[in-house]
Write a structure and sequence with these properties.
mainly alpha; about 85% helix
């Protein structure tokens, strides 16, 4: 169990550092940078913890990651007054199945159809989980944000 936790910590740190590099490439403002990196850490933890400790499949792991990511991004975007995508882009990097997509294409090119279907199914499940999670949080938060903005405008007028 201890080895599993150490492995998880190392993986989360590596994922977070990779996402920090992505945030640098996109030129995220300094005042937002560390919040975006924290978003990536939380999204990575949201993906890895269900998969490692609760035997969740790729769809559920990606869904949990996307729910954590989008919720955090929406809250921080509201507090920092930046678009939520500033948080979502670096935050989603750990969950995007780029390596699996590569191996899916490699199996297709080499004619290994069993591996192609297996890897392709996993890629589609992860992608669907990410999409459902982000869309779900956005669908819930948009009306709430609209209400809060309308309420704040009324307070400013009075």
């Amino acid at each position: 169990m201890t080895d599993e936790i150490i492995s998880l910590i190392v993986m989360l740190i590596a994922m977070t550092v990779g996402s920090a590099g992505t945030a640098m490439v996109f030129g995220i403002e300094k005042r937002v940078f560390w919040w975006a990196v924290l978003c990536a850490f939380l999204a990575a933890a949201g993906f890895e913890i269900p998969a490692r400790f609760f035997a969740a499949g790729p769809f559920i792991s990606a869904l949990v990651s996307a729910l954590v990511l989008a919720s955090y991004a929406d809250i921080m975007a509201h507090l920092l007054k930046v678009p939520a995508t500033v948080m979502i882009i670096p935050g989603i990097i750990p969950a995007v199945p780029g390596g699996r997509l590569y191996f899916t294409m490699q199996a297709a090119v080499s004619g290994n159809m069993d591996e192609f279907y297996s890897q392709g199914r996993t890629v589609l499940l992860i992608t669907a989980g990410l999409a459902v999670g982000i869309i779900g949080v956005t669908a819930i938060s948009r009306p709430i944000n609209a209400y809060l903005n309308k309420r704040n405008q009324k307070k400013l007028k009075t």
